[in-house]
Amino acid sequence: MPSATMMLESLSNWISKATLILSGLFLVLMALHVTVDVTLRYVIGTSFPGTLEIVSFYYMVGVVFLPLAYAELKQEHINVDVVVGRFTPRTQLVLYIFASLLGLVYFGLLGYQALLDAIRTTSQLETAMANFKFYLWPSRWALPVGFAAMCLAILSNIAKAVRLRQAL
After folding, report:
1. Is 65 in a helix, a strand, or coil?
2. Are 9 and 155 in contact (CB under 8 A)?
3. Number of H helices, E strands in the chain
4. Which stretches does DSSP call E strand in 7-162?
5. What is d(CA 161, CA 55) in angstroms, rounded to the nearest whole number?
6. What pLDDT, in 10s, does the model give residues 82-112?
7. Of 15, 110, 149, 150, which residue is most buried, by most CB within 10 angstroms?
8. pLDDT, tens digit, 9 for 90 and up, residues 40-84
């Protein structure tokens, strides 16, 4: 029977891959949208309405915030260990757990505030000034989802480090 740590790692891995795929989908949609806009502008002299708003407020938000957890699980975030690399493995593990807990608090607070903002903007049906009615509130949900996935990835990495008895 799998342990709680293994189940946490598996769940975090699944969620981080799902958010990465969703982010990739946003990236492809953004490329297609901009390509159609540029093509229309040069072929028939008119552009696709709302391209700037959709790219800025929907696609870019998803592309930036959704893959954070995947980068965390793969240890691809910026990491400088010039000094820590000289410490004993036990000290490195303690410092890794401490830094991870700080990251958990940081991203947890960001996620909590982003969730409050998403709930508020959804209840107000937040819009942006444009030539048409452009709703902003759906894009606000990418932040709490991305930060929650990031917190889960940090927890998973802490559990993995403890299980392996070494800093990741």
Report:
1. helix
2. no
3. 7, 2
4. 127-128, 134-135
5. 38
6. 888 888 889 989 999 999 999 999 999 999 9
7. 150
8. 999 998 888 888 888 988 999 999 999 999 999 888 888 777 888
